[in-house]
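WARN no homologs supplied; continuing
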Amino acid sequence: MNQCLKYALTVVVTAAAMVAYQYEGKPEQVGLAQQAPSQVPEITSDKTVSGSLPTSAAQAQKAKRRWIAEYSAALAEESLALEEEDIRSYEAVNVTFYNPSTTVCETTDVVTEKGELIAKEVCRDEYKLPRHPYYTLDNAALDTLSYGEPLAAQILAERISAEEPEAALKLLLHAAATSEKYGPLTFAAHRTFRLYDPIREINQEDVAMHIALIDVALAMGADPNTVSALKVPDGFVPDKARVQKLVAELKASIAQTQIAVTGSSSLKERFDV
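OK structure emitted
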């Protein structure tokens, strides 16, 4: 819905600019207008009479600027409303805050262990807004905060997920339980246990866990169109019985953690465990 509205607004602005451009007039057209018969309405100000054209390039430019400013302001207002809706939608299901990023890559010279100088592409994420202060904390501080702060738990999980996937998973399950949001589960599925471009060598258990995490996220209200499981890579055959067992274990763990930390049993009731 948002993308359709944004596209429609873009079409409106583009059409407005095209109309304004038509009013600019070429120099030879301006000369002809000045020689036109007297029935052409007299221009008494920068504003033109309905149905008439500006009689100078300066007036045409003013008309164009007024037109674009009007629709640009309207577009900016609508875009802000759309962004606010995007923020609400994102933060309703994630423990991280809405902060769009772009990946910037640069080629730099690096020295290998053998002393060879090679060109290497180094990439980094640049964020629209300053990041949350928790990102500056060390792992020990994040671990201390993670019991009651879902964001701290997810940041720490992200840092250790490649080398310590099981520990990262426990943190993400804790974050999902204490926040009652499925975002940490989809993060676990598509980062810690992602099947394509993995952060470490995957195995059959990783495949089962990836699918199970998606199933639990769906049970927490995730949209199937946005969090569906990835196609299993060649060479791996999902063990359906193992997946079902993992789903049951994950649901029970999340429900028990929520009760222990927050006192709420909403997820226990949702999962019927």
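Strands lie at 101-111, 117-127.
OK
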